[in-house]
Amino acid sequence: MKGIGLLGGSFDPIHAAHLALARHALRELGLEQVQLVPARQPWQRGPLAASASDRRAMIELALAGEPGLALNPMELERDGPTYTIDTLRNLPPGRYVWLLGADQLANFCTWRDWQEIVSRVELAVAHRPGTPLVPPPELQAWLETHGRRLTELPFEEMAISASEIRSRLEQGLPVSGMLPPAVDDYIRNRRLYRA
Fold first, then answer.
1. From the centroid of its chain, how far is CA 169?
2. How far apart are CA 101 and CA 124, in angstroms?
3. How, if at all, do strands 122-126 and 151-153 pair?
4. 164 contacts: CB under 8 Å, gap ≥ 6
5. Spatial distance between the Cα atoms of 37 and 74, rounded to a whole number of angstroms
6. DSSP string computed for 92-147
7. Which one of 21, 117, 148, 176 has the minimum C-beta count within 10 Å?
């Protein structure tokens, strides 16, 4: 049964590794679609550098001409802190696969209502540079008790991060190859991430 992949994040800004992971998951997991779900106000981190409207515009530019990839703006349209469980409760019925990196897996059990999250979606975990792919003991125990498992998503690791891109842009350094060209143009035209 085909399903929909959900890739959450701040996308501040969206970059080449986000797109590579979304495309890879679409193909490797045989999904009908992968939806990028940008957080309006992630509760586990400080304020974002770009506004919700700028991040939405950058994602739309990045996804233009990307078959099978789409923006899910649900969290951007909600006020207050962004919790994954609220998003999942508001999705129409269906099979969903939550895509996350090994770095996010390490703190998964700090997410609000994580047991309900993992009861609603399958988890597919991609390798991230420098992070072992080991679920926290509480999650491993929950999966075993409920006869569920993590799907490992072998992914050629890309050492690109939004924080590095923001830092380079702030210093006026090049970011060629790290961003889709349309996103790079948007950032420069809007003078985002400048000191």
1. 21
2. 8
3. parallel
4. 178
5. 7
6. PSS-EEEEEEHHHHHTGGGSTTHHHHHHHSEEEEE-BTTB-----HHHHHHHHHTT
7. 176
| Cα–Cα distance for residue pair 76/53, rounded to 1 Å | 8
Query: Chain-centre distance of CA 50, in angstroms?
Result: 16
Q: Which two tokens stand for residue 57?
A: 């515009």
pLDDT tens digits along 28-48: 999 999 999 999 876 556 678
Query: Average pLDDT for residues 164-172, to the nearest whole number?
Result: 94
In angstroms, the CA 156 to CA 17 distance is 10
Give the pLDDT confidence score for residue 2 in this predicted structure: 86
Q: Where are the alpha helices (DSSP H) in the chain?
A: 16-28, 52-63, 84-89, 102-106, 114-120, 137-145, 162-170, 181-190
Cβ-contact 48, 96 below 8 angstroms: no
CA angle, residues 85, 98, 162, in degrees to nearest 5: 95
Greatest distance between any 2 Cα atoms in the chain: 52
Q: What phi and psi, each to the nearest 5 degrees, are found at residue 77? A: -90, 5
**pLDDT for 101 beyond 90:** no
Say which residue the tokens 């929909």 belong to: 4
Q: What sign does the dihedral 36-40-42-47 (CA atoms) show? A: positive
